[in-house]
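Structure tokens please, single chain.
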Amino acid sequence: MKRPPEQESTKPRVLVVAGSDSGGGAGIQADIKTITMLGGFAMTAVTALTAQNTLGIEEVLPIEARFVALQMKAVLSDLGADAIKTGMLGSARVIEAVANVCESSAFGIPLIVDPVMVAKGGARLLDQGAHDALVLRLLPLASLLTPNVPEAEVLTGMSIKTPRDLERAADALLGLGPSAVLMKGGHLEGDTVVDLLRTADGASHVFEGPRIVSRSTHGTGCTLASGIAAGIAEGLTLHGAVARARDYVVQAIRLAPGLGKGHGPLEFAHPLLALAQAAATATDAPPMPLRH
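Here you go.
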């Protein structure tokens, strides 16, 4: 029996170039869950393996640059991509390899760069050579750069303490070549979290929301950037993609399962749990709990 011919898929495709988190809360694990929950198809090029949990990273096993590039090319030559998102890259050689593939095999595909540079404890994750490669090779290719405050301080050399400082930092980062910058203000003090989206053509938008006091914030940066990438791959506007991704992250923090003894993971499946609860309510079946 012959299989019927398959119609060309319109499913949004996102290629993630990032490290693996054995604890499942950040890295490619968070990326895959987020993109899937937002209706996209996630593909990966793994840059590093980590032995980590909610308490921290115990060891990192880097993947050689040649094999990172090979993974990217294998995906792009067959499945293709509607957006590319980078996370932990780790070394100048890997950054150079990723930039080369983006130039040679992914021309015109939006590139979302999450500059994973500083660990939660403040440790630098990129040496000077890798920092220079990020600035000189990858940022000029970026459609969107998504730094948090510590990362923006490293990239700009500025001290960032206020929402006004976010504006100054965004302008400085735009000078490094990306088409747009999303300055994440979660590290600033205050009961309101302020994020600033600014583009090279002068457009600007401030996103605000009440701060959620929670220890379950591991992987929020990965999740936000991947959520944005999924929206861009789907064809949303940049503003629309950022707004939807922020809403997804906020709910994922609110409904976090409370796992681990340190910085816990988010509840990535909250859209699915909400649907299940609605279906259970409609059939008078016992609802699924949104908290574990």
